[in-house]
Write a structure and sequence with these properties.
CATH topology of the largest domain: Tetracycline Repressor, domain 2
CATH class of the largest domain: Mainly Alpha
Strand content: under 5%
Number of helices: 10
Helix content: over 70%
Order of helices and strands: HHHHHHHHHH
Distance between the termini: 78 Å
CATH architecture of the largest domain: Orthogonal Bundle
Structural class: mainly alpha
CATH superfamily of the largest domain: Tetracycline Repressor, domain 2
Shape: elongated
Number of domains: 2
């Protein structure tokens, strides 16, 4: 039989698990709200309702709406950093003249899994306050610099289209994200779910074909 200390420890562990599950529900609901309705248009009450939690738990677990936004954004940026970082590591294993294409395809596939990233950046990119500054410093600027680096090397190799790296970054971002951010529209127009694996792969190839060139012979 369990003694009192073991029972107390089990209860404490269960409370920690429950608290973490509640925090995750609130973070997920917050990401959906902030990325579709914007920061000012999202209320803590509606976020708690969407999360299926009691009123007041945002203040209990996070302290404020601002802190909840930071927690939700940090979660999303951590996933972004992890997955795109892994893609960059894998990219370095392929032939150099294929690295831009590999990067493009990897980015499109990531965007299909996480359309909330582009939606959040659209919301915050129109405002330009502390939240955008936080996002840029946390993950967006490092990713931008990596894309520019890969593009510039591809330009040297003759496998990049004629444009500068800054414009390439935004052309790629728009092409890679819009079909997934506006998935309902894309599905209504085509009759095909753009998030289906086959459709994602086709779009990744379409974007890569549009934004890479065959290496010029020496």
């Amino acid at each position: 039989m369990q003694n009192n200390a073991q029972i107390a420890a089990a209860r404490s562990e269960r409370k920690l698990r429950d608290a973490e599950a509640t925090r995750r529900k609130l973070v997920d609901a917050a990401l959906l709200a902030f990325s579709t309705q914007g920061y000012d248009g999202s209320s803590t009450r509606n976020i708690e309702t969407q999360a299926g939690t009691k009123r007041g738990l945002i203040n209990y677990h996070f302290g404020s709406k601002k802190a909840l936004w930071r927690a939700a954004a940090e979660h999303l940026m951590s996933v972004t950093e992890r997955d795109l970082g892994a893609a960059l590591a894998d990219m370095n294993k392929v032939d150099e003249d294929q690295q831009l294409r590999f990067l493009i395809r990897s980015y499109v596939q990531f965007c299909a899994k996480h359309p909330e990233l582009h939606r959040l950046m659209i919301q915050e990119g129109m405002v330009g306050d502390w939240r955008l500054s936080w996002l840029l410093k946390r993950a967006v600027r490092p990713w931008y610099e990596q894309v520019c680096r890969v593009f510039n090397r591809a330009a040297e190799l003759g496998t990049a289209p004629k444009m500068d790296a800054h414009h390439f970054y935004y052309v790629l971002t728009g092409a890679a994200t819009l079909i997934f951010s506006n998935a309902a529209e894309a599905a209504a127009l085509s009759g095909e779910n753009p998030l289906a694996p086959k459709a994602v792969d086709a779009h990744a190839n379409a974007v890569a074909d549009s934004l890479t060139l065959t290496r010029r012979p020496l």
